[in-house]
Every structure is written in C-alpha cells, then in structure tokens.
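Posting for a labmate who doesn't have an account.
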Amino acid sequence: MLRQALGGAVALAGGSVLAAELGRSLVVVYPELGEPFRQVFTTIIEGIEDKLGGAVTSFAIANNANPAQVADDVRKRDVKVLIGLGRGGMRVAAALADELAVMVGCVVSVQESEARSFPIHTLAPDPALLLGRLKRLKPATRRVHLVYDPKLNAWLAKLAREAARVEGLELLAQEAGDQAEALRAYTQLLASADPTRDAVWLPQDPTTVDDNVVLTLVLKEGWNRNIAVFSSHLAHVKRGALFSLYPDNHELGRSLAVSAQRLASSPKSGAAGVLPLRQARAAINIRTAAHLGLDVASVQAGFDLVYPSS
C-alpha cells in the first residue's frame, strides 16, 4: 500500500455520496512496473485524488501476484469502488466484479468479452477525435482505410463508422485475423490509394500493426506515395506517422474519478463495455507534414508534441 485514505471535503454533484467519503472507500490497484510506466500510474492517481479532493488508497502489485489474494486484501477494507489500472489491475477487478463496483482504466487493447461485467477505459483514442483532427489537417481527405482484428477492435470500428459519417468521410474498414492477412490488406490498399483523397489509420492493434514488418511497410509506402498515415500510437509519430493522440494522464485520472463517483452513487450506472480515450493530447511529425504539402507553421501550434524535436 502506497497511500492511506484521507478524505476530502468536496461534495459530489447531485450528491448522495461525498467525495471525501468516496476517497476513504475507493481503492486503486495497478501493476508494479519500472519507469516510465510507474510515473504514468502515479500521475493518473494524482488526477483521481485531485478530483476527489483528497488521497485514496492505492496498491502496486507485482506481476506474479495472485489476483485472488489481492482481492482478499481488498475485501478486508470498507471498499465501495475499485479502479484497476493496467492488465494487473484488470485481473483484480475481474476477481471482485461480482462483489463491488469495479472499473478498469489504462489498458491498451482488450477483447470485448473481457468487458462484459464492468466498464474498461482503454488508451485507444476516440475515433471522433482522431478523424476530426485529420479533417482539420487535410480537409480534402474523403476516405480512411482501417485494418483491424475484429476480436480486439470491432467496438472501435463501430465507433469509427459513426465518427466518419459525422466528418463526411468514408471508412474503408477491413478485418484481419493475423499479421499475414493484415500485410496483404495494407499492400493492396496502399497500391490503389489516392494520395489526394485517402488516408491510412494505424490502430492500437497488435494483430494488424506489427511494429516491425507492417509499420515499416506502411510508413515507407505512405511516404513514397504521399499518403497521409496517422496512428493511435504516439511512438509511430516519431517514426514518421503524420500525427497521433496520446493520454493526458492527469485528466484521465480526473475522468476516472468522475466515473467512480457515479458508480458509488448508483452501482448500476456503470454500463459494462469498452470505452475510448477522450482525455488526449496530440503529437505531429512536421517533417511528414511538410512532405505532404501541409503548412507546417500553421498546423503545429495545435499540437502538444512536435517531432523531430530539433
């Protein structure tokens, strides 16, 4: 245990439950990892505490920790809501889902079957935010290509179709069950894409976006054919993707606290399912932007990170 519950003085809006009371009865569980991951979890917890107006109890658990044993420790406390961060926190949340209000955050990719009992806030940027930014950067874009594993990202493709409709875009989504199938899909779509109208979106999908073979192919062909490639992975911007969105960890913590408040007031209010990231910052590769003919001076001001940095 890293922090003791101290209670705050901020009242919940609508409020049958005070934030101070929730702070005393909320537990955050997260995996014990080295930097930079430790700082990510610390900042998220600081955001939770900032919103609740006081400290909360949090546990860092080892990778080899038994989720059942951690769950037993939680049961000994007067806990109303548990927030599990990362995969380690999700395992503990799953072990307690039938006993108390639980929710999960800071998970990169997840199967929908894992979110049947509680809400999971992923790190996958909301398609509405991504596609909205794409249209602002390249207004002439008309079609967006997305290759995804339906076991992991059917929920994301569904949101993306609606977001594309709102932005006046056509989403050309292709399913791929393995890397070979994804590679064939990318090879074909890149060969026929129209640089003036088409863009390629790389999702957080370990099946379809291998960081070596697939990423190298897409970025190389995108560059050679002047096709805009944007990504849900911040690291891809450094390697040449046009832009990406990435978590604002403090704001993510504040958002998780708001969801926890709702759960504490009404345990049935937290509908199960997978949710995208909306508390996001943006990064751009100005070398790629210039290569695509964008006005770098006018576009980079709207981004929090700029690559190359010098």
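Reply:
Got it, the structure tokens are right above this. The CA atoms of residues 186 and 254 lie 38 Å apart.
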